[in-house]
Amino acid sequence: MSPITKMSLALAAALSLTIGIAEARKGPPEPVAFEVIDLDSDGQITAQEMSEHRSTRAADRIAKMFERADANEDGLLSVEEMQAVAPHAKKGKMRGFGRMDADADGAITRQEYETALAARAEHSKQGGKHKGHRGE
Q1: pTM of the full predicted structure?
Q2: What is the Cα–Cα distance from 5 to 1, expressed in whole angstroms?
Q3: What pLDDT, on the 0 to 100 scale, is given for residue 54?
Q4: Concatenated DSSP letters for the chain?
Q5: Is 10 exposed, middle or buried, given 0-12, 13-18 or 19+ CB atoms closer than 10 A?
Q6: What's the Cα-to-Cα distance from 86 to each of 20, 35, 49, 114, 115, rounded to whole Å?
Q7: Considering only CA atoms, which of 87, 120, 39, 22 is closest in space to residue 128?
């Protein structure tokens, strides 16, 4: 399997897990006030401020996910813990778990989860396409 195919599958799996987790939340996310992103209060949002805001949000999402899903409080997420917070997810949809579990130890660390989210974000920035991908 080519590296591009592996990355595409990992990103699709991460997206599937994230969607399942988002559906498990109660209600839509709250809108973010302009002032929260405009760190220097100059009335403009720079690329740096937006980047910092996104990084903070990603860290918050990871922390909340682990707080909600890490039932045994060992700092790791197992397949069972992930399925508990996304009960509608079938076993087949949890196959992405293995792709996020970089060291194949049966658990996802915060770092592995963060890496998967970052890869998904990068994939989205690129319009969901890779160099050499058919259709480019």
Answers
A1: 0.56
A2: 6
A3: 82
A4: --HHHHHHHHHHHHHHHHHHHHHHSSSPPPPPPHHHH-TT-SS---HHHHHHHHHHHHHHHHHHHHHHH-TT-SS-B-HHHHHHHSTT--GGGGHHHHHH-TT-SS-B-HHHHHHHHHHHHHHHHTTT--TT-TT-
A5: buried
A6: 6, 33, 32, 18, 20
A7: 120
Q: How far is CA 33 from CA 20, 57, 72, 121, in A?
A: 26, 13, 35, 22
Tokens for 81? 């813990």
**Would you state the CATH architecture of domain 34-126?**
Orthogonal Bundle (1.10)
Residues with Cβ within 8 Å of residue 68, at least 6 apart in sequence: 85
| pLDDT tens over the chain, length 136 residues | 666 655 555 555 555 555 555 555 555 666 678 888 888 889 888 988 888 888 888 888 888 888 888 999 999 999 888 888 876 666 556 667 877 888 989 899 989 988 887 787 777 777 655 444 444 3
